[in-house]
Fold each of these.
Amino acid sequence: MSEQPSGARPEVTSDAPPPLGRFYEVDGRRLLLHRAGSGGPAVVFLPGGGGVGLDYWNVHERVTELTTSVVYDRTGTGWSDRVEAPPGCAEVTDELRQLLRAAGVPGPYVLVGHSLGALYARFYAVRHPSEVAGLVLMETDHENYSSYMPRELRELRGAWDPEQELPDEMPEEIVRLYRHLLGQMMAGWPGSIREPLIDRHVSPEWLMDGYKVLPHRDRFLDEMRHAGPLPDVPLIVLTAMGIDGFKKAVLIGESEELLRQEIDGKRRLYTDLAASVPRGENRLIEGAGHASFHWRRPDVVLQAIKDLLGR
């Protein structure tokens, strides 16, 4: 693939083929899923907002040496079919359940969720506890998140209206920064995966995917709030103790000191979450930030998966 000029936005069409995986139809929509490895329980990765399945390729490849591993793009993300509004927790978990059946991946599953994907993983476990062999939650979104945060941060983020302030397109400086950061995170990956993945991540369509979720976040959190408590399944929560470049790129007016206070709030929240089930633990991870967790510390994610597979 030819090198794009710095900050350029490549033309990306919806039918551009993914570097890995195949499409399955669920409720009339084409969804991309890639599976490899053998045995069970299968490990299934649930991406965060703005993320796609192949973002977790570096961990997925290692997991395939242990058991079946699955990465996928949920509706409205990545190479899967687009939708007007992001689906809610019930729709996402119903879709994933049907997709895994269509792909012939039997349960139970170790669900590895990141941020918004970890919220969906928790929702899946509440709805289908017998189908979940364990949960690894990286930086999970949480219905009680704001109550653990400092007042200044709550007020600052509460004053932001995503419906009114979403940009029509991403500023060029953000595009350049994202391309640079993604290039660093995926430096050791095969070019056949890295190049198309980065090109699409900095395309206008994919760049806006994460932002399109924001006006609907309260709806998702309300669903989780009313879903009920987590069942007694093995749980490992992974808490990032650092601040990454992706977060700094999109946050305005939030000092580093305030972000440090946020990290302390997360630590307390995730410790309480882990304590809510008999077999839960919260691991505090240095050298990782929210968005870049699985890129900077794949060893930690892999170890958590191994620990659950061994139980």
Amino acid sequence: MSMMMACWKQNEFRDEACRKEIQDFFDCSSRAQEARKMRSIQESLGQSESLSPHKMTKLLQRFPNKSHLI
């Protein structure tokens, strides 16, 4: 997106001069949208990656549950 904006600024916001940058941006955004859809489908089907025991232990050590006394 920054490449497209920089091109627009250099070419006084003319789309014709920045056609390649605009197309690259649309291609990138469509790939990102497809990736989000696939990730959502995988999560809904329970196919998302789970954390390894080592990673889970590290996270629990970094963010422990603190007990509260009443």
